[in-house]
Structure formats: structure tokens, C-alpha cells
Amino acid sequence: MDELQSRTIALRSLKHDKGLKVHFAEFPNLIIWSTLNKGPFITFEPWSGLSTFLEEGDHLEDKKNVCLLEANQVEELGFEIEVL
């Protein structure tokens, strides 16, 4: 997901009043996935870049939303997980 309207996502159980909320204000993208065999989990991953699109080349600098750093440059990104 790369055109997000929010930088927060929540997941609540249908069986009880438990859940998680992930706040990822510093990340432009969110990846949501699970296993093909209906595994007992779902994963939220804030990303600062995206995988290769069909119309992109294989060069890192051409990737959508990628954050390129100069030599010795450091950037720290963070997110919060809130237990509901």
C-alpha cells in the first residue's frame, strides 16, 4: 500500500476484545501479508520503499519510494505497536 490516507492500522480479534494498533508515521508504505495456507497470523510491515513494479528496472535508485543514503549517512525510522 503506497497511497495511504493514514499512518495507523489496527487489528482486533472477532472472538475477544484484544488487538493491536501499529503507528508508523515515519514510513510511506505498509505491507500486509499472511501465508497462503491460512496461517494463524497476519503481518503488518511498515516499509520505506517498495518491491519492484513491472514498469521499473532492477536498479535500486529507480524503485518507488526508496530512501537512498549517501556513504556513512544514517537514518533512523521508528514505529509503535500498541496493545489494545
TrEMBL record:
Q: Which domain of life is it from?
A: Bacteria
Q: Name one GO molecular function term.
A: carbohydrate binding
Protein name per the record = Aldose epimerase
